[in-house]
């Protein structure tokens, strides 16, 4: 009976779907275990073999936990709002919801492209997902709850005294009773004080404006990353090297009124929470750096000839007497006010230039020094000396206060800046207040120095100096001690169509929340997905996008009267909105009234294991933790942290094929291709006595005797489907007939031996290079192709076998056949050509040893996520059992269970063939019995004068005397001694036997 993976896998995938084999229960006597994958964005390109790596690992773990008796929740869904779908809609005129649906479910898009569909691709690989809980963030029944969470954030403030979010009504009550003087809240820095009487006398609109300064989500004018090419604001993690990650469009800094999330309120809790979760240290460190806790002081510098002041946060208040100049961010609001007429032109030119650089680029570029003197001067709080005020793009408006008190003697960047502009107007000599030589470099240490030239701080070090200066600043009301965080509030608006609509309408320019019972507010139909002609976001193209407060429904714009019908918010939420809480929706995915019931949340609590890419180290993971903590404060989430354990899978890299191409016009032939293995001769003969002269393997210098400028080789990617994966030989016929390479039909191909290839006279080879798997590099291998040829179990085992889960590793299709051969060998333990050959024979000691080694190894490997070594052990075990000619049910039945987490389809088929009803999925995992690994005998090396001559197998419980007696009587010993008597017999039980003399 032959192993037929396609037939077996289709059969069992249908069985699992029909019987809902992997449906988790929200009330079970079993212990729970929640295993989650970072859900994918469903692009039209579909899955390549790199995508399922983490999914296979989580699936192996989930299946193992079911065998251990856990009630496992292992769901899957789609992060289906995103810029790519919108960009595709703009280019092709297709509705994003249509293309997204086709990308998930499969079918033909408007352009006639056949789309495999994520769901079908995932099903082919045999994942044990609970598909009854599938979520799609772009479905109204999902984003209804995202809108609801937004409303909760709007109606909340952060109370520093209770260290948690509270309902805005409690803040209003405080204002009504005692004003805001004693309110200890996370809020805007510009809030003015008011009494209870003043609050109660304020008009409703004024009260709403004040509350916006306290709410956890709020409207504010913010410096943002504006991408004109995409027509939207981008987060820092959506920008790479100063351009948008999607499309590579330029990004500029610009002020816009945006919704923001007050994530900064949770900075300390986000920092401390890292101590309580099982994540890699590198991910934790990334988050610590992003949060960026600093302890120091806030110092106020008055401005000469201006009523405004410059507030500066510094971690080194002890160096205040070394302030030589000040630097403001180019976008700082004071710049326009304080710049003198003489400096205005230079300052404005510099601001325009720096607006084209992203914050990330400015932070990373530590080599470029640039800046402009504003012409203004600040006043030192103690000495009253004039301090020149500069602008420089190494200072960012959103970090600290957007201002730096520059102390060049104690900071390398300030030192470089001061030296770069040395001698220019507005740059004084560096003040040295440290008893160290700074002629070559700044001294930035906090230990091993004393302060000098520092008035009342002379002779002090960092700690004493810091405490003293803070006390003195507080006395003159120009500073105080402060803890600061680099983490800034997150911009939460996008000027695009394909995202969650805000449940917000505007009355007199102030935001009002739509009552939760009227949710969802569904995206309207629009003709164009581009901004309007007057620059409004794409939702401005809708003719029906107004809120009727009488009917509580969306109405036509023409009816807006600002009395009962009001304009709706035109921005949409960012991509991270839906992904910041999705794991909770899986707990109760069909609940129409709540995002999840209290009972479901209490039962599942949080994710036990989360697997995904390290590219989400700060963005998604930080936002998710923030929303989870907020929902915990509001009494919804049961735990402080959403993900107990996090594992980042490495990337599977593609094995690209490349070939050298020369652009040359010779007898109507434009291109010459040269074999990768060929080091060309000085001349390569062509037809009719023509030849090419090669300078070296990368350059042609002469054609038919005519000297030419060196023609350099261009390396182009070749579709890996056009080569032999084992030999790397290019199929020229397929290559020139492929539509992708049709321009190369009349090319010259120089083969392995340096001769022109005619009628397969020679071979031409490509070179291989490990790169990121990408359609543009033509190195994509789809799981569908592998499953079709070898089966899903082969794909699953091979991906786990490639190497440690967390490391990047190259894909090599050539290795697939070995794993497929292993599965066929496993099959032959159970079947021959006539059918089942499993018997009831008593297993031998060797049989039991092979089995229990495997049980032990696989159990330990899965718990430690060392999946690659499990696959090795399976191969060892099957080889041993084959050698032992083992067909015993007592061995093969438990082996089927052990391997089922990795290769579930073949395991189900074998389990059924062994006479069992139902699925193997929840059968108890075999128990490891150590007794079967205890050696009862030993293969001793027998040596004569230290040289091993033969081996002898003896029971381990023999005494020295018994061992000596047996060895001396052995005929091989007698032959070696040849009548002699050894001087000494050395025996170490369990180790060696050595006869000396």
Automatic annotation (TrEMBL):
Sequence motif: 'KMSKS' region, positions: 772-776
Cellular localisation: Cytoplasm
Keyword Ligase included in the entry's annotation: yes
GO BP, one annotated term: leucyl-tRNA aminoacylation
Chain ranges of the Aminoacyl-tRNA synthetase class Ia domain: 11-155, 768-798
One Pfam family here: tRNA-synt_1_2
InterPro entries found in the cross-reference section: aa-tRNA-synth_I_CS, aa-tRNA-synth_Ia, Leu-tRNA-ligase, Leu_tRNA-synth_edit, M/V/L/I-tRNA-synth_anticd-bd, Rossmann-like_a/b/a_fold, tRNAsynth_Ia_anticodon-bd, Val/Leu/Ile-tRNA-synth_edit
Annotated coiled-coil segments of the chain: none
Enzyme class: ligase
Residue ranges constituting the Methionyl/Valyl/Leucyl/Isoleucyl-tRNA synthetase anticodon-binding domain according to the UniProt record: 848-960
GO molecular function: aminoacyl-tRNA deacylase activity; ATP binding; leucine-tRNA ligase activity
Domain of life: Bacteria
Any one annotated GO CC term: cytosol
Catalytic reactions of this protein: tRNA(Leu) + L-leucine + ATP = L-leucyl-tRNA(Leu) + AMP + diphosphate
Binding-site residues for ATP, renumbered to this chain: 775
Keywords: Aminoacyl-tRNA synthetase, ATP-binding, Cytoplasm, Ligase, Nucleotide-binding, Protein biosynthesis
Domain Leucyl-tRNA synthetase editing, first and last residues per copy: 288-473
EC number in record: 6.1.1.4
Family statement: Belongs to the class-I aminoacyl-tRNA synthetase family.
Protein name (record): Leucine--tRNA ligase
Lineage summary: Bacteria, Pseudomonadati, Bacteroidota, Flavobacteriia, Flavobacteriales
């Amino acid at each position: 009976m032959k192993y037929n993976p396609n037939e077996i896998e289709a059969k069992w995938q249908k069985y699992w779907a029909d019987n809902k084999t992997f449906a988790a229960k929200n009330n079970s006597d079993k212990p729970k275990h929640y295993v989650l994958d970072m859900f994918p964005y469903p692009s039209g390109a579909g899955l390549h073999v790199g995508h399922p790596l983490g999914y296979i690992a989580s699936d192996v773990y989930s299946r193992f936990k079911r065998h251990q008796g856990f009630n496992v929740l292992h769901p899957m869904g789609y992060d289906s709002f995103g810029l790519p779908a919108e960009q595709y809609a703009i280019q092709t005129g297709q509705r994003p919801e249509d293309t997204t649906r086709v990308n998930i479910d499969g079918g033909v898009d408007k352009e006639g492209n056949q789309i495999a569909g994520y769901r079908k691709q995932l099903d082919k690989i045999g994942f044990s997902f609970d598909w009854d809980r599938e979520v799609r963030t772009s479905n109204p029944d999902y984003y209804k709850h995202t809108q609801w969470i937004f409303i909760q954030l709007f109606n909340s403030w952060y109370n520093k005294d209770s260290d948690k979010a509270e309902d805005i009504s409690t803040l209003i009550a405080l204002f009504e009773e005692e004003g805001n003087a004693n309110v200890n809240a996370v809020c805007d820095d510009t809030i003015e004080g008011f009494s209870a009487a003043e609050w109660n006398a304020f008009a409703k609109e004024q009260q709403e404006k004040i509350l916006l300064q306290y709410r956890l989500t709020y409207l504010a004018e913010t410096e943002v990353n504006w991408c004109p090419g995409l027509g939207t604001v981008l987060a820092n993690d959506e920008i790479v090297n100063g351009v948008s990650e999607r499309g590579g469009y330029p990004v500029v800094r610009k002020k816009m009124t945006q919704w923001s999330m007050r994530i900064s309120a949770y900075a300390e809790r986000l920092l401390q929470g890292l101590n309580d979760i099982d994540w890699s240290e590198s991910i934790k460190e990334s988050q610590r750096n992003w949060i960026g806790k600093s302890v120091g002081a806030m110092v106020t510098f008055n401005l000469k000839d201006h009523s405004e002041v410059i507030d500066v946060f510094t971690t080194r208040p002890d160096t205040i007497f070394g302030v030589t100049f000040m630097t403001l961010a180019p976008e700082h609001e004071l710049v326009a006010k304080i710049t003198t007429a003489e400096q205005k032109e230079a300052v404005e030119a510099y601001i325009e230039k720096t607006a084209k650089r992203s914050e990330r680029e400015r932070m990373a570029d530590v080599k470029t020094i640039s800046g402009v003197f504003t012409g203004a001067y600040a006043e030192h709080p103690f000495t009253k000396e004039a301090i020149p005020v500069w602008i420089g793009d190494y200072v960012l408006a959103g970090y600290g206060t957007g201002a730096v008190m520059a102390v060049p003697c104690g900071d390398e960047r300030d030192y470089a800046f001061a030296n770069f502009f040395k001698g220019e107007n507005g740059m004084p000599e560096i003040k040295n207040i440290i008893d160290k030589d700074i002629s070559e470099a700044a001294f930035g240490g906090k230990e091993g120095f004393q302060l000098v030239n520092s008035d009342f701080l002379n002779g002090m070090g960092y700690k004493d100096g810091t405490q003293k200066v803070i006390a003195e600043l507080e006395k003159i009301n120009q500073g105080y001690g402060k803890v600061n965080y680099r983490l800034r509030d997150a911009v939460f608006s996008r000027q695009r169509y394909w995202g969650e609509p805000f449940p917000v309408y505007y009355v007199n320019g102030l935001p009002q929340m739509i009552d939760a019972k009227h949710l969802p507010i569904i995206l309207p139909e629009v003709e164009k997905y581009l901004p309007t002609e007057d620059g409004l976001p794409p939702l401005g193209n809708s003719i029906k996008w107004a809120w009727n407060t009488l009917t509580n429904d969306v109405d036509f714009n023409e009816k807006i009267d600002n009395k009962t019908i009001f304009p709706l918010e035109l921005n949409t939420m960012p991509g991270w909105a839906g992904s910041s809480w999705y794991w909770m929706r899986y707990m109760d995915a069909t609940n129409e009234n709540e995002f999840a019931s209290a009972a479901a949340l209490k039962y599942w609590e949080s994710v036990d294991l989360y697997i995904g890419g390290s590219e989400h180290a700060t963005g998604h993971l930080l936002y998710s933790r923030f929303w989870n903590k907020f929902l915990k404060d509001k009494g919804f989430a049961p735990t402080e942290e959403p993900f107990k354990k996090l594992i980042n899978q490495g990337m599977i890299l593609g094995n690209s094929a490349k070939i050298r191409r020369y652009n040359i016009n010779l007898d109507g032939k434009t291109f010459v291709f040269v074999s990768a293995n060929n080091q060309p001769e000085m001349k390569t003969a062509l037809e009719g006595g023509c030849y090419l002269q090669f300078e070296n393997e990368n350059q042609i210098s002469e054609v038919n005797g005519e000297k030419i400028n060196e023609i350099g080789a261009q390396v182009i990617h070749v579709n890996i489907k056009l080569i032999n994966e084992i030999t790397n030989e290019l199929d020229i016929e397929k290559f020139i007939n492929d539509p992708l390479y049709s321009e190369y039909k009349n090319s010259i191909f120089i083969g392995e031996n340096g001769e022109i290839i005619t009628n397969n006279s020679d071979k031409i080879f490509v070179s291989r290079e490990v790169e990121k798997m990408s359609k543009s590099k033509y190195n994509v291998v789809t799981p569908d192709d592998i499953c079709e040829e070898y089966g899903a179990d082969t794909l699953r085992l091979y991906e786990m076998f490639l190497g440690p889960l967390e490391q990047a590793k190259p894909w090599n299709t050539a290795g697939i056949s070995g794993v497929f051969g292993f599965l066929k060998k496993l099959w032959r333990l159970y079947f021959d050509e006539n059918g089942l050959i499993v018997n009831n024979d008593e297993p031998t000691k060797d049989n039991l040893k092979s089995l229990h080694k495997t049980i032990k190894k696989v159990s330990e490997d899965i718990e430690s996520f060392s999946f690659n070594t499990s696959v090795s052990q399976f191969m060892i075990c099957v080889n041993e059992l084959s050698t032992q000619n083992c067909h015993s049910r007592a061995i093969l039945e438990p082996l089927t269970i052990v391997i089922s987490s990795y290769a579930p389809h073949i395991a189900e088929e074998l389990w059924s063939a062994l006479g069992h009803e139902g699925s193997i999925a929840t059968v108890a995992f075999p128990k490891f019995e150590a007794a079967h690994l205890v050696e009862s005998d030993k293969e001793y090396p027998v040596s004569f004068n230290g040289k091993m001559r033969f081996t002898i197998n003896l029971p381990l419980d023999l005494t020295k005397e018994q061992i000596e007696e047996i060895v001396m009587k052995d005929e091989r010993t007698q032959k070696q001694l040849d009548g002699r008597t050894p001087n000494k017999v050395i025996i170490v039980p369990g180790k060696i036997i050595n006869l000396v003399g």
